[in-house]
Amino acid sequence: AAAASLAVLVISVPATVIYLDRNAQREAFADSQPIGGVLDMFSSDGNSTGRSAGQRNAKSDQDTRQLTNRPAKEEDTTRLDQTLEIATGSDEAKKNPKSLAQQNRPPQLRVASVDDNTAAPPPAEPAPGIIRHGAHARFKDGVAELAPGAANTQAGSGLMSLGGNDGSAVNQRGIGLGVNGFVSSDYPHDLIAPVPENRDRFEGAAPNPVKQVVADPVSTFSVDVDTSSYSFIRRALNSGQLPPKDAVRVEELINYFNYDYPRPESAVAPFKPTVSLLPSPWNASRQLIHIGLKGYELAHAERPRANLVFLIDVSGSMASSDKLALLKQGLSMLLETLRPDDTVGIVTYASGSGVALEPTKLANKAKIQSAIARLGAGGSTAGAQGIQDAYRLAQQAFDKEAVNRVILGTDGDFNVGITDRRQLKSYIEEKRKTGIFLSVLGFGRGNYNDALMQALAQNGNGTAAYIDTLSEARKVLIEEASSTLFPIAQDVKIQIEFNPAVVSDYRLVGYETRALHREDFNNDKIDAGDVGSGHAVTAIYEITPVGAEVKTVDDLRYQKQAAPTPTSARPGDQPNANSESVGQVKPDEIAFLKLRYKLPNEDVSKLITMPVLSSQALNGADQAAEDVRFAVAVAAFGQRLRGDPWIGEHSYDDIIALANKAKGDDAFGLRGQFVELVRLAKVLTSGK
User: Fold this and answer.
1) pLDDT of res. 388
2) pTM for the complete prediction?
3) Which residues in 495-512 are b (16+ Cβ under 10 Å) and which e?
4) Which of 155, 243, 393, 626 could form a disulfide with 247 if both were Cys (CB 3.0 to 4.6 A apart)?
C-alpha cells in the first residue's frame, strides 16, 4: 500500500501483531503461533490464570485468522459462532448462530469495545468502572449500582470486558459480540480507536522583559505556591515528550520543592524573608537576587477545624486509571490527615450533578470511605452545576472558625453548563467573599484544561496541583496537607524597588501570570496569592549592576540618571530604619524589599520591609546555601525548557552539574528525580 494507506493503528499483544489498513481493510498476522492469546494483553502481572485463559482461546484465534481475506462460507458461520460461544459464553451467540457471517464478504477483524458505543483506546491502562458497564452495572450521578442478577459478579477492572487487569477467569467472558478482543467488520460500528487528540489547554505568557531601573524602578507581583506545572512537565518528559512551552511556569517549578529557609517564630508574623545576592551562573556580567520566604508551620493542635466538600468530576473523560481511580485513592489518603471533628461532603458532576455524601464527621470515616469507593465515571461534564451544589453543601456546614474549602478534582473538561470562564471566575470570587475557598486537583493528559483550573484556583483563594502518580497524591494530600488546606496568610504581595545608582536593569524570573500594577500593592481590595502552613516561596531577580561591561539595555543618551521618588507609604506602616538611604545617598543599598499580607479572617494588610545590601553579595555561586543554588538550577531549567533568550549558552549539562552539587539531604529523592528530568529533556531536545 502507498505511504498514505499505511497502518493507522498497531496493537502489540503476546505472539500477535495486527496491522489495520483503514483504506484496504485487511490484516496481516506477523506471527500465527498460538502462544498466550489475547487475554494476556489485559494481564497486569502475567499470572497463570490469565495465561491459561489465553491458551484456551488460542485455537479460536487461529480459526478466526483463517476466515480472513476470502469469501465467507456456511462452515465459517458455525466456526465463528463457536468461537463466540467459547469467548463470551453469550446467549446471543447461541440464539443467532449466523449473526456475524451471514453477508457474503470477509469478516474483517477490528478492535473490540466495551459496549456498542465505546472503542477501546489502545494503549490505555485498564481503568476501574468500565468493565461490564452495560452488562452488570448502572451509574447514577457517578455512583455505581449493581444491576439485577449481578450480586455474584466480582468488581471488574479493564478497558475491555474480555479479561480483567489481573487476567482472572471471572473476566474471561466478553460483553456483546467480542471474539478474543476482536469483532467482525459486520458489527454495526467502526470500532478502530483513533489516536487520541491532544486537547490539553494552557494559557501561556511571554517571559518577563528586561526593564531599565531609571525608567521603571519598581516590580510588583503576587506570590504563587501552585505546583501543577512541575508535575505536568515531569509526566510529559517521563512519557518521552517535551512539554508545551506554555505549560512551563518557572516559579511553579521552583516552588515545587521544599526549602529550609529560616522559620518565623509565631503565626502573628508568619514570614521571615531572607535575601541572597550571588553571581548569575549563566552570565558573568549579572547578579541574582534570591528572595526566600518560609511560612509559619501550624502544629497539629493549632490548626482550625476543616469543613471540606469534595467536588468530583465523574464525566466520561475521567474514566481512566490516571484520573478518577487515582483521585479516589488520593481522597482516601487525605482522610487519614483529618481529625474526628472535621467534616467531609461529596458532590459529583457529569451529565447531572448530585450529592453523593452529605457533610459527615470524620468520626464516621467508614461512611465517607464507602461513598468514595462507589464513585464511577460516565456522561458529559456539567461542571458549573456541580460547583454550585458544592458551595451550597459547604455553606450548609459552614463554620466561621473553621477552614471552609471546596476541593475540585477534575481534568478540567467543563463542556456543559456555564462555559464562559469569566462567569465561572465571577461566581467563585463572590463565594470567596463568604469565606469558602476553592482548591483544584488536576488529573490526566490529552484533555487537561490547565488554563481554566488556574483561573478557578486563583480566584478561589486556593492552590492548583497536578497529580500524575500515587506518590504525587501522597505528597500533596498527606505530606503537604497542612499547606494545601490551612492558610497562614492571604493576599500576599511582593514589591521591590531598585536603586538606579547601583542597578542598571533587572528582570523577574517567572511569575508572568502573577504580575500586579505598582498601585495594587497598597490596595487591600486587590486579590493576591495565599500561603499555607509551612509553605516555602522563592523569587529570583536577575540584575545588571551599573558599570557592567555588558549591559542588556543601553543607557539613555539624553536623560540624566536620577534617583526616583520612593514608593508611597500608607498611614500606620512602620518606616524602615534606613528608608532615607535611597539613590546615591546610600549606594550600599541595591534594592528595597516590601511584603504585604493579611492574616486569616482579617481585612487589613500588614507590611514587612528590608533593604538588599551590596555587602550581602557573594563572590561565587558556590558560596550560596544549597537551597539557594538548587532553586537557581531549577530556574535555569525552566528557562531553558521554554526557550527563554536570557540564559545564553547555559546548557542542560551545566544545570545538572549545579543541581547535583546542591541536592543536599533529599530525604524523598525529589531533587535526584529533578536531575533525571533534566537528563531526559537533554535527550529529547537533542533529537529535535
Assistant:
1) 85
2) 0.70
3) bbbbbbbbbbbbbbbbbb
4) 243
